[in-house]
Every structure is written in C-alpha cells, then in structure tokens.
Automatic annotation (TrEMBL):
<keyword id="KW-0050">Antiport</keyword>
<dbReference type="InterPro" id="IPR007603">
    <property type="entry name" value="Choline_transptr-like"/>
</dbReference>
<keyword id="KW-0597">Phosphoprotein</keyword>
<dbReference type="GO" id="GO:0005886">
    <property type="term" value="C:plasma membrane"/>
</dbReference>
<keyword id="KW-0496">Mitochondrion</keyword>
<keyword id="KW-0472">Membrane</keyword>
<feature type="transmembrane region" description="Helical">
    <location>
        <begin position="579"/>
        <end position="606"/>
    </location>
</feature>
<dbReference type="GO" id="GO:0005741">
    <property type="term" value="C:mitochondrial outer membrane"/>
</dbReference>
<feature type="transmembrane region" description="Helical">
    <location>
        <begin position="176"/>
        <end position="196"/>
    </location>
</feature>
<dbReference type="GO" id="GO:0015297">
    <property type="term" value="F:antiporter activity"/>
</dbReference>
<feature type="transmembrane region" description="Helical">
    <location>
        <begin position="203"/>
        <end position="221"/>
    </location>
</feature>
<keyword id="KW-0813">Transport</keyword>
<dbReference type="Pfam" id="PF04515">
    <property type="entry name" value="Choline_transpo"/>
</dbReference>
<comment type="function">
    <text>Choline transporter.</text>
</comment>
<keyword id="KW-1000">Mitochondrion outer membrane</keyword>
<keyword id="KW-0812">Transmembrane</keyword>
<keyword id="KW-1133">Transmembrane helix</keyword>
Amino acid sequence: MILILLRAAWSQGDPRKVIYPTDSRGQFCGQAGTPLEKKPLLFYFNILKCASPLVLLEFQCPTTQLCVEKCPDRHLTLMKAKLGSNEDREYYQQYCKDGILKDGLCPAILMPSKAFTRRCLPALGTLKGGVVVVGNETTFTDGKGSSINATDVKSNVVVEARQVAMRIFEDYTQSWHWILLGLVIAMLVSFIFIVLLRFLAGIMVWVMIVLVILVIGYGIFHCYMEFASLKGEPGSDVTIRDLGLQTDFSVYLQIRQTWLAFMIILAIVEVIIILLLIFLRKRIMIAIALIKEASRAVGHVMSSLFYPLVTFALLAVVIAYWAITAVFLSTSNEQVYKVFNNSECEYSRETCDPQTFNTSNASAQCPDAECLFAFYGGETYYHKYLILFQFYNVFLFFWCANFVTALGQVTLSGAFASYYWAFKKPDDIPSYPIFSSLGRALRYHTGSLAFGSLILSIVQVIRVLLEYLDQKLKGAQNKFAKFMLSCMKCCFWCLEKCIKFLNRNAYIMIAIYGKSFCPSAHDAFFLLMRNIIRVAVLDKVTDFLLFLGKLLIVGIVGIFSFFFFSGRIRAIEDAAPSLNYYWVPILTVVVGSYLIAHGFFSVYAMCVDTLFLCFCEDLERNDGSPERPYYMSPELHEILSKTKMHLCSLTKKCSLVLVVEQCWFLYCEDL
C-alpha cells in the first residue's frame, strides 16, 4: 500500500506548484526553460481584492495575476502613464498583459512593492507616531479619481500577514546565532544536571524543587514590578479585549492587564506545586530512592543519554517522507479556470476554458468577464478521493512515528532491564547494553512494535477525522451534534492516553521477557493493577519530580533569554540584536530548551518506569531468601520496606486523592 500511495502521488504530483507562483493563465513564474524564466515574481493587478472571502475558499485572489521581472518601485497610475513620457509608458507596460497599455489589460495603479515568497506585495512601513506609509506616501489615487489610504492597504489580511512574516524572518536572520547559543546552553545545562543527578541524586532533587519555586516566585515578582511601573502611563489601562488582535505582540506588554494575567497564572502554578509538594512530602523520599537507582543505571549505561539522537534522526526521516508525499498529493490536481467579473453575471464563478472563452456565451453576455486560473482541482476518481489518500498518508505518518518511538522505548528499557537483573553489578551487565538491546528489538520484536504502534495510530487517525468533522461542522447550529462530537473527541483523547500508557509498559515487558505484544500488555496491565498504589506513590511522583526538572531548565534559560533579547542586561546591552519582535527568539529558545530537556529526561523517565516494573516483578518472583534473593539494591529495598505500612494505609484512606493525582500527572505528561 505504501508503494501504491507513493506511485500515485509521485506520478500525478507536481511540486513546481509549490515552488513557483502561478499566473492567471496557470503558467509557472520563473520556471527554467520557459518564456517566463526571467520573470520569477508574481504581480497582482489589484492587491486589495485579496481580502475577498474567495481567497479563503479557493486560495486565489479574484484579480488578474501576471509574471514580472521585478516588482514596482514607485507610485504610478495608468492615466498618468498614458499621458506621460515614453519612459513612464515603457515602465508601465511591464505590468500589462501582453505588454499592451490599455484599460482592462493593465492595472489601474502601481504602488511600491517588495517581493515576498516570490509575490509582489505593498512595501508597507511605519513612521514615528505610528503613521503607516506605502513607499513614502500615506495616501495615493487609484487612477479613477478616488484616494486610497495606506492604512486601508495595511488592513488587508494578506498584506498584514506578509508584514508580520517579513519581520519575523528578519528577526531570525538577526538572532539565529544567539538562538543557537541559547540552545547549546540549554543542552549543557541539561547534561550537567543529569551528571549531577547521577552522583548527587538526593541533593539535586531538593535543589531542583527549591529552584523551581524560586524561579516561578521571581516570575511573579517581575510581573508585579512591570504591573506597578505601568501605573499612570498613557494607554496602559486599556484592556486586552479593547486592544483586539494585534500583529505586534509587544503592544500587549505595554498594558497592565497583560502583566496582571501573567502574575495570576504564575501564582496559581506556584500554589499548585507547593500544595502538591506538601501532600507528597513523605512520598518524595521514596521517589528519590528510585531516582538514585535510576542514576546508577544511567551511569552504567551512559550511551543511553545519546540514544534520543537516534530517535530524533529517524523521526526526521519519517517527517520528511510524510511532508514530501503530502506535497506531491496536494499538487497532483489539474488547473481549474473560473469566470471572474466586476458586474453582475449569471456565469460568475463558473468553470471555463481559456482557449474557447472568447467565443462562449459567458464572454458575449458579460463583456467585462475574464476566464482566469482559480485553483488546482479535478473531476476524475483520483481527484475525488484525493482526501482519502491524504488521510492514508497521515495514518502512515502516525504509524511510522509511533514505531520509531516504540523502538526507542524497547531499546532503552531492554538496556536498563539488563542492569536491574544483573545479580553482580556491573560484572553481569553486557558490554554494550544499548546495542545489544537494539539488536534484540530489531531481530525479534519488530512485529510486536508494529502491532502496538498500529493500535495507537488507528486511535490517532480517528481523532484527526473528528477534528476534520469539527471544522466542517463549525457553521452548523445543531447543538446536539456539537455535544456528541465534543464527547467523542474527549473519549478518544482519554483512550489515546490510556493506550500510550499501556503500550509503554507492554514494551518494557517485551524487553524483559521477550514475549509478543498481547501477552506482554496483559502481564504489564495486571502487574500494574496488583501494584496500583505503588504506581501512584512511586512511579508518578518520580515523573512529577522529573517534570519539575524540565520546568527548571526551561525557566532558567527562558529568563536569561528574556533579559538578553529585551536589552535589559546593561553589561551586554550593545551585543543584543535589534529586533522587531523580541519574543520571537525568546519563544524559539524556550520551546527548543524544553525539547532538549525532554530528550535528556525522557531517558531518566524510561529508566524509572523500567526499574519500577522490574522492582514489582522482583517482589512477586523473589522473597529475599538465599534461594530466591532480591535483585534490587539494598538501599532501595530498605526504603521500600519502611514504606510498606504507609502504602497499606494509603489504600484505605487516600484512594480518591490518588485518583485525582493520577489524572494530574497524566495531564502534566501531556503538556
């Protein structure tokens, strides 16, 4: 099926439709070997029409589009060009159909433009005081006696989006090396933290808890100081609702309500974390013992810290396959032409043929109508069921991505299981545990990994279908249908989380015993059910502590990047790049830091989950006697023995609290 999809997509698709812009005749601008090779840019006769709803329906502006060599760099009207010098006429003819200076074949007006994604869009600018200009002019005539304000051009959705995209692109070009430096710092901080956790697990956990509280506390203090400093400033009391949607997000930082909202959110997070730590104070000691054991396991399997790079590389290949196939599928349509007109016409927006349009009834009854390229589509069976091919491509993407993730989980859990079940550590541990585990997974467990990934992928595709239906039914007024759709989306979200949790533990059992997927999932489920209290007390509390570690790294790097890019560090103020939106590199560094920290801590999380299942299995198989000794370390056994009575009391007294905590930890994992 994969080969059939690839053959259909790559034989019918044409990526040139994405690379090159298309004029009103369906020709590619700038394509080598064609008459338009030296005309790589697309020019719109009337850019203001791009705000029409038709753009959202058919992804095409209802105006004539022409391939040109360069974008206009000055303001000029058609009337002025006709009455002007030969230089003006020759200049204007570049932007007319067939180079003929005539009404209907030329735009009514030219305005200074700049190329963006090979399309000529107005060169908007802002003077001091917020005055909007196109080129250097605030107003200009349209050639028909009316004047156009530059603000009206700016309010155009397409033009405004172009401005924002250009500014973001400029910010990346100015700050990309600083962004890379921030990500490198995040990697070094994560690695140092993991190394310190290896030798000072108990101390580092408590240091991590205190620092998380201090970092969030500092965030609350900073928000309060910003909130107080804006008191009495002009315009600072405007509400976010009154301000509306602004493309310049720094505007929101000039009003007090924004900082008040940040302060409230951080205060709520701080209170939740402190309350959880108070209620979990006894269980944190147990979790620290498990983290210490995980630190020793990671120390003996140091190569496990670099295995996420393998997973990342394989996921990059999967994403590349999906993206390329999706592009070929989306560009496998045929050119569709429709009737565009300015006056009323019964043939408006109907399909037409540009070769025969001049002799058709539409041309006779609607003299001002034109047969222009509208979009790519088709009426064949292939084109009708193209959406199914796209969904199938999405399904293959989920399946392959889940398989790569499952392979990484089995590989890591197999390496850590070999550490736990080695009676004499480190003598009984294999020389290369990661490579040995990866070899076993590829040789014996490929089918099990594919089957587990298939189950999860089916649920994920159903969720995508539900989201697709939700978008299609947004305009429906049936409240019952909306309610049922929302319930189904919620149920399948919960089902996906449950399957991910079961699959993860099933893969651990596969790595330990080498059984197939179904028996391993059965054994893992009932093993967890027999130790449900330990799951909440040990496993999930440990996951929560590791989640705090991610927050700490993201918080530290995020705070320093905020002060640097906003120019608030006096010592290095001159080194900070001049940016349009300083939040662009800050968000990039924060998101990248979280992904890097998640990559390092995911190894620890997998180690903790593996050791926890091994520990539960060890308790059931062995009793600590000389004939059946425990494989767990004496330190872990001592702490777990002390908490045995505590676990029994929790079963009777705190079942509801544990259920609530379990839901909270699943939510944290989802974030």
